[in-house]
Amino acid sequence: MEIPYTSKPRPDTGLYNAKVGIWLFLASEVMLFGALFSAYILLRVGAGEGTWPHGLLSIPIGTFNTFVLITSSVTVVLGWASLQVGNFGRYKVYQAITILCAFGFLGIKSFEYRDKFKHYEVWLKNPITVHQGGKEVQTDRLLGHIEYEGHHPYFWNTARLAGSPEIKDKNGKVVKAAVARVESFKFQPDPIHYTMSPKEMAHAKKESFGHPHQEIEIKASDVKRLSAFVPSHSTFFAIYFTLTALHGLHVLGGAIVIFYIWGPGAKMWKTDPQRYMNRVEVSGLFWHFVDLVWIFLFPIIYLL
Amino acid sequence: MSDHSHSHGEAHGHSPEEVSKHKKVYIAVFIALLIGTVVTVALNYLHFDSKALTIAIALFVASIKATLVACYFMHLISEKKMIYVILGFTTILVIALMVLTLTSYAAFPNGTVTH
Amino acid sequence: MQASAHTDAHAHTHDAHHHEPSFLQKYVFSTDHKVIGIQYGLTALSFLLFGFFLMLCMRWQIAHPGQPVPLIGSLLEILIRNTDGTPLLAGGQMSPDVYNIFGAMHGNIMVFLAVVPLAFGAFGNYVVPLQIGAPDMAFPRINMASYQFYLLGGLTWFASIFIPGSAAQAGWTSYSPLASTIASYGQAFLLVGLVLLITSSLLGAVNFIATIIQLRAPGMTWMRLPFFVWAQFVTGFLLLLAFPPLEAAGVMQLMDNLFGTSFFLPTGLAVGGKIAEISGGGSPLLWQHLFWFLGHPEVYVLILPAMGVVAEIIACNTRKALWGYKSLVYSVLAIGFISFIVWAHHMYLTGMGTKISAFFQTTTMIISIPSIIILTCLFISLWGGSIRFNTPMLFALAFLPMFGIGGLTGLPLGFAAADLHLHDTYYVIAHFHYVVAPGTIFALFAGIYYWFPKMTGRMMNEFWGKVHFWGSFIFMNLIFQPMFFQGMAGMIRRMSDGGIQYAQKADAKLIGGLDKVYFDLHTVILWAAVGLAVCQIPFILNLFMSIYKGKKVTNDNPWEATTLEWQTPTPPPHGNFTKEPTVHRNPYDYSLPGAAKDFTPQNQP
User: Fold this and answer.
1) How many CB atoms lie within 10 A of CB C65?
2) Is A270 on the interface with B (CB under 8 A)?
3) Each residue's pLDDT tens digit, C407-418
4) pLDDT tens digits, A191-223
5) Which of C59, C311, C370, C404 ranks highest by number of CB atoms within 10 Å?
């Protein structure tokens, strides 16, 4: 006996197997992202005063990426519609755009990530005076970039400033080279901090527009805490990276599947066109879901 | 294995006219999604004084966009009953997860959890 | 027949079966649901035995704290090492760390690697497609992937015991911050394994539900489904929708452990007397919510398939239809739904507000109603039956009171006020073990004895089956019954010294003191557990020897049952049925008046 309803729908449910499968899978995905969104809300509501960063992500980049994803979503569904009238060539073009959009989205996202890894917040032991929003401000928390020995280092944290000794294994082989201690580093502070309200941040940005960064020298001994914008910076960046990385994995997975069906798997169009269309439809449903998650992710993470 | 190779198009039974009508709908939804995105971003630059209003508007627009995607791109506007049943339960449960978790969190005596 | 069962020959001709499948294709990378079911079964039984072994070591430590583990102490001393390479069992004695490791792994292994895979993966895979008259699962290759993810996850956990610092120590609940503050990679291994297992169960659940919706044979309407299929259907939904929040939580805890985030770590957390270098701002309660959102439905994942197995066996061996089939079906659906909104009854002691407590107490009491309906229907089904007391039936019958005890003793735990006293005592252990050990595991034994002839064409030995049953029945009760008394007296669980602190104050009148009799019970429990282990030997031998030496079945339907799995060749070939069955009647048409025999198969017009 052969497995029935792989391409034709079962009469009483009106569905073919893969369609039931993908919707069940998406139901489970709803629960997965639902739990992460719950975590987001709970962490945000529970965040103490001045511990929930906002306004640190690039809205233009995020908006552009939203456009990219929406475009890929419409090309998926247009490609499927082309197949329905037997226009395989048109489908190939649409789906090629989808795949390009998917990798474009991931490329842009990885640039965004890289940017964050060398952007810092430093918590100082004693407040200093800096120029922010057109006026002199006393503060012990600064955002900005580090310059050390001519480089903008990635992933520095408090422990990195203290350096670390050489680590050898039992046989005396060096497992990890020694890291030199940092006495002091140059810091280019941003004109803003997320302890300001969104309005104040916008104002401070406008005021400082066109002015070069005022560089300061910070002694390691004055630093209470140093963190790049990495997951351990705060619960905001923790959930930001977790949510967007998980979403990014979905984009990657979806793109690979769509690519497979588009390229090596396209032989099936000749042998079993109905089943091939089903595959395109099912992979499309997944793709729209990924788009749908981003529709919520974008405002809550970039804007709010 | 070969009995369904001739069934091209039969399952959905969409005529070329119908499909081109659908394509117009897809383009319309696409434009609506672009507009929705622009509106959300533009409103964000206005910086309302009320945080609650900002959040409400952003989520409202996002919900409309999500509904459009789900209904038209994912064809939920005309899906089979079984799919609605599955998604109905899922929706109830995801709401239960969010609401009950947040309520129980809010129900703690002041200050014992957050600080 | 065989060639036509190729599931996806279009795109992937290279991995399709040839006429003579090689050993690897037939037994290791098989897409046949029956082979996958047996793979699940054997793997899960091995883990069941391993989890039992961990428990034996723990019971030894509880009864004889500080004394070297007999027989295997020195072996464990070599195998299990600390992060610095020193043995964790110096001189073969279980240190508190090892006790915690064994405890955490016992819980995790028994739930995720033994009972669920056996109940859902093994029986579900083998029996469901046969019972609904399907040629295979809807997605055979996804089914194979499901088993492979399960095996990989299981091996990850098993391997984690032997890494420096050994496995996770924070219980099966992995509460944060505890789970994020132990200096070993055990917890990370646990979480990675957990993600693999969740992937496995997600693939399995999608497959089961899609199969039941789509591949029912002609005439197999929803209300003609055997109750076992209904139970698996609901279980599928529980796995599908309850596991993802734990996956989310698992990923977040992994971030906490490996990338220094603070999802579940509060501001001002001190570890080892020092303020931890973390951002803080997280919520330990968030973990508990997400964990128990899975954790409670998981309890029903353990019990529903067991109820399904028992229902099948009772109907067959009473030679009459199940009493109240529709009540059973609606009850199992109700349990499935309500089980999602009772989870915080595990969290009364977190100090939740009274309103939210009241909500969860109410739903917890409500969920007991469908459970009791199911149990009652099964009991009434016995009434007036001509009962055959064979081994599967004995285990199925024992399930009823055992699950009854387990379920009813849960009621006091569902009330916040009573829970204040009983929480985290041995009472809780006794309660949930009555549900799962003499409950579910007995049902699974019943299932093994019942479906063994279909899988192999031979019967298991009845005499040794009965020895297995009576021994297990007596020792199970001797193990868990005393724990109720210990717990009600106030003895708390998770003590690596087995209660020396009580022994030092062996005076019930002192605060924190317990009468000596309560910790003397530890010895009773230890030897009962050893007895239980001994009673499994006839089962293991019987299981393997019957494959070759068991009495051959004389026909395809040795129990004279009505459901479709008995209307196939024995063992069923690839593709299951020689021709597509058509279903004409209800699942339990036993002893129909006027019928030629006392059973009328579902496919008989």
Assistant:
1) 19
2) no
3) 999 999 999 999
4) 899 998 888 888 888 888 877 778 899 999 999
5) C311
Q: Which domains does chain A have, with CATH numbers?
A: 29-36+56-117+235-303 (1.20.120.80), 124-166+173-228 (no CATH)
* Interface residue of C6, C8, C10 to substitute, partner A, most A CBs within 10 Å: C10
pLDDT of residue C9: 40
Fold observed for domain C31-265+279-567:
Cytochrome C Oxidase; Chain A (1.20.210)
Whether the CB-CB separation of A55 and A201 falls below 8 Å is answered with: yes
For chain B, the chains sharing at least 3 beta-carbon pairs closer than 8 angstroms are A, C
Tokens of C319: 């030679």
Beta strands A174-176 and A167-168: pairing type?
antiparallel
Helix C227-259 to helix B81-106 angle (10° resolution) is 50
Q: Does B11 touch chain C (CB under 8 A)?
A: no
Contact between B40 and A285 using a beta-carbon 8 Å cutoff: no
A68: nearest CA partner in chain B: B34
Q: Which of A5, A31, A40, A234 to mutate to test the interface with C (most CBs of C within 10 A)?
A: A31
Q: Which residues of B touch C213 (CB under 8 A)?
A: 82
Cα C552 to Cα C469: distance, rounded to the nearest angstrom: 22
Torsion sign over Cα C565, C567, C571, C572: negative
Contacts 24+ apart (CB under 8 A), C221-225: C221/C583, C223/C325, C223/C326, C223/C329, C223/C586, C224/C583, C224/C585, C224/C586, C224/C587, C224/C602, C225/C131, C225/C132, C225/C587
Touching C: A residues 72-101, CB under 8 Å: none
Cα-Cα-Cα-Cα torsion C304, C308, C310, C313, nearest 10 degrees, comes to -170
Classify residue A127 as exposed, middle or buried by CB count within 10 Å of its CB (0-12, 13-18, 19+).
exposed
Are C150 and C211 spatial neighbours (Cβ–Cβ below 8 Å)?
Answer: no
DSSP conformation letters of C158-213:
HHHTTSTT-S--STTTT-TTGGGSSSSTHHHHHHHHHHHHHHHHHHHHHHHHHHHH
Contacts of B100 in chain C (CB under 8 A): 341, 344, 356, 359
Which residues in chain A come in under a pLDDT of 50? none
Pairing of strands A120-132, A135-147: antiparallel
What residues in B contact C267, CB-CB < 8 Å? 115
Q: Is the pLDDT of residue B3 over 80?
A: no
Chain A environment of B114 (Cβ under 8 Å): 46, 48
pLDDT on residue C513 = 75
pTM of the model: 0.94
The pLDDT, as a whole number, for residue C511 is: 66
Other CB atoms within 10 A of residue B45 CB: 10
B5 contacts in chain A (CB < 8 Å): 271-274
Q: Which of C283, C293, C356 sits opposite B97 (nearest CB)?
A: C293
Domain boundaries, chain C: 31-265+279-567
DSSP string covering C118-133: IIIIIIIHHHHHHHHT
Q: Which tens digits make up the pLDDT trace of C517-542?
A: 888 899 999 999 999 999 999 999 99
Q: Which chains touch A (3 or more CB pairs under 8 A)?
A: B, C
